[in-house]
Amino acid sequence: MIQTDALQFTYENGSEFSFPDVHLKSGEHLLILGPSGVGKTTLLHLLAGLLPVSSGTISVAGTDFQTLKRRDMDRFRGSHIGLIFQQYHFIRSLSVYQNLVLRQSFPKKALDKARIKELASRLGLSEVLHKKVTQLSQGQQQRLSIALGLIHKPDVVFADEPTSNLDDANCTTVIELLKEEAKICQSSLVIITHDHRVKSHFKNQLTL
Amino acid sequence: MRLGFLAFRNMVSKPLNLLLSLLLLVLSVFLVTFVLQLSKQLSGQLDKNIAPFDMVVGAKGSPLQLVLSSVLHIDVPTGNIKLEEAEFLTKNPMVELAIPVSYGDNYKGYRILGTTHEYLDKYEATLLEGELYSESFEVVVGSIIAQKLQLKVGDTFTSSHGLASIGVESHEDHPYVVKGLLKPTGTVVDRLLISNLESVWEAHEHGEEHGEEHEEEHEHDIEDEHDHEGDDDHDEAHDHNGHDDHDHEDEHAGEEHDHEDREVTSFLVKFKNPLAMVQLPRFINENTNMQAALPGFEVQRLLGLLGSGIKTINGIALAILLVSGLSIFISLLKTIRERRQELALLRIYGLGTAQLLWVVFLEGLLLTLSGFFLGWLLGRIGIWITSLVTEASYGYNLQMTGFDATEIAFLGVALLITLVATLLASISIFKLNISKTLSDA
User: Which residues form the ABC transporter domain (chain A) (predicted)?
Assistant: First the structure.
């Protein structure tokens, strides 16, 4: 599912990162661990196609990123990749339901209302579907964020510190939820975290 | 989800920004369309009303006033002229038609105009029902008056002296009879009561026989030029009558015992030959006691005066439009800055840069279109209200029309400004760094 080779990235300010090669089979999960500042988020953004690599190659779901133009990269991300951010990002002018519809809509995917309702009910969002996203509680925002990463059945879901703001009980709940949903969607899960509570849930680990 | 829906949600999610941009746009479009329509319809109506006649001959005074009173029926006459003195016009080879018109009375503020049937022919006024007047004190009624005053064929009414309906003696012993109702013509005829000339004269004579109260009224309204004409230039008038119109006196002498005293307000003249436009007015103004005015020229002069006012208002409207464009630009720029993360999120969702631009542009477009239509609608409502006012005080009503070419062109300008504003505001979208934007939060 994910294949990288001699990946390197240099920021404009000169800080350089080299990453170990990642090999992940379809349906497998990966936990990327490491302290702050070693480039975890950078690696995640490289793998998700948000940043262009400085050198080396990335191939996700059989597509070599080097062959993709900017517009094709946007399309590829839209249909094959799911992202769950540390900070929640929503379209504030839309309702919860409309946010989910929007995530499903591009590029050219049919609206699947049943899927939205089903996922919302599993994540306990049924009651707030027609509320504005700004009216949600912290926990509801967390779950909506997960829903937005999975609603379009991506091949790979990247999650950036999904548990950092949570207490122990909720941490376990969210990890279970992620694994369960990834299984239903047959998606690979790539989680980066410095949170050691997550360690025990994944056997496939990479430490930077 | 359609991008238009997203753009719409984005637009209404900031109601105060929306209100400011919209208000400016609405104000600008309102001003432009309102003034445009007003001037267009006004000049259209004026043109239609003056079209049947090339020249009007009346008592000396302001030529504009003469045209306003005798052709457009909105001002008081400059005075009267002697029928005899002006009748040479009907014999002039360059004249196709010269129709005498005479004012005297009104009924509930609507003017009773004494004239010949030819007057109706020139305005292509035809009967809706009844027949034309043939005797004195018979009238045909213009369509607006018939509707407003609910007049029917066979109704009688007594006229009031002068041209204003208030506080004036009425001629109760000479009631008018409605003989016919006219079809709507869209011209001044619609708000006139038309009788023969004799009705006006006879009502007058009668009035003069009565006491002093009337005298005052007469001097003020109708005969304020009487003395001047009668005394000062009597000789001159006779002279030209002598050589211009040899058989005049023979023909008309004795027809009516006091013919020489007969007066009319003016003569409306249609030329046979365009050359007359140059020769006749000058001849009349230089050699007679009367003045000749050209309605086309006077109306153009009037519209010229209005025109500078219209230009000023259009200038103001354009300035407001530019400010509104600036407001849209600032509002979009602010929106884009505030929504950087949402725009980056849309890129994650699979939208390309072009689609992001499109969302922002759609937002500007929606704003412009809704502002334009609201402003346009307001302009039309303004026309409608103005129409109520002008109809009440001048008898002019304005038509409600669809979009005209100038308005479409104005929409084009507004859209162009929006497009430029959007593009300028969107430059940062091209340089959007999604990785940085989303992790900076």
Answer: 2-208
Name the strand (E) or helix (H) holding B290. Answer: strand B290-293
For A93, which of B10, B348, B351 is closest by C-beta distance? B10
In angstroms, the CA A186 to CA A173 distance is: 19
Q: Which residues pair with B195 in a beta bridge?
A: B114
Contact residues, chain B, for A77 at CB < 8 Å = 347-350
CB neighbours (10 Å) of residue B96? 13
Residues facing A75 on adjacent strands: none
- The pLDDT, as a whole number, for residue B206 is 55
What is the CB neighbour count within 10 angstroms for residue A85?
A: 22
Whole-number Å distance between alpha carbons of A121 and B170: 87
State how far residue B359 is from chain A, nearest Cα, in angstroms: 13
pLDDT at B227: 43
DSSP-derived secondary structure letter, B124: T
Of A51, A93, A160, which has the smallest distance from its Cβ to B13's Cβ? A93
In chain A, the domains with their CATH numbers are 2-207 (3.40.50.300)
DSSP state of B439: H
- Of B400, B397, B399, which Cα lies nearest the Cα of B142? B397
Cα B189-B226-B60 angle, rounded to 5 deg: 65
Q: Scan for tokens 């001699």, then name that residue.
A: A6
Closest approach of chain B CAs to the CA of A97, in angstroms? 11
AA letter at A44: L
Residue pair B29/B372 in contact (Cβ under 8 Å)? The answer is yes
Q: Report the distance separating Cα B28 and Cα B418, nearest Å.
A: 14
Give the whole-angstrom CA distance, residue A82 versus residue B73.
78
pLDDT at B217: 43
d(CA B119, CA B115): 7
**Pair of tokens at residue B157:** 């009414």
Q: Give the whole-angstrom CA distance, residue A135 versus residue B396.
A: 57
Give CA separation, A206 vs A5, A36, A51, B108, B211, in Å. 15, 15, 20, 100, 120
Query: CA of B404 to nearest chain A CA: how many angstroms apart?
Result: 37
Contact B404, B40 (CB under 8 A): yes
Q: How far apart are CA B224 and CA B80, in angstroms?
A: 8
Q: Determine contact, residues B328/B367, Cβ cutoff 8 Å.
A: yes
Q: Which residues in chain A belong to E strands, given as ranges? A: 2-10, 16-19, 23-24, 29-33, 55-60, 63-64, 81-84, 156-160, 188-193, 205-207
Average pLDDT of adjacent 10-residue blocks, chain B of 441 residues: 85 86 88 84 83 89 88 83 83 87 84 89 88 88 88 86 62 81 87 87 62 42 42 43 42 46 86 85 88 89 83 85 84 84 89 88 89 92 88 72 86 87 85 82 54
pLDDT of amino acid B225: 41
- Among residues A117, A110, A40, A43, the alpha carbon closest in space to that of A79 is found at A110
Quote the CA–CA distance of B13 and B268 in Å, as a whole number: 64
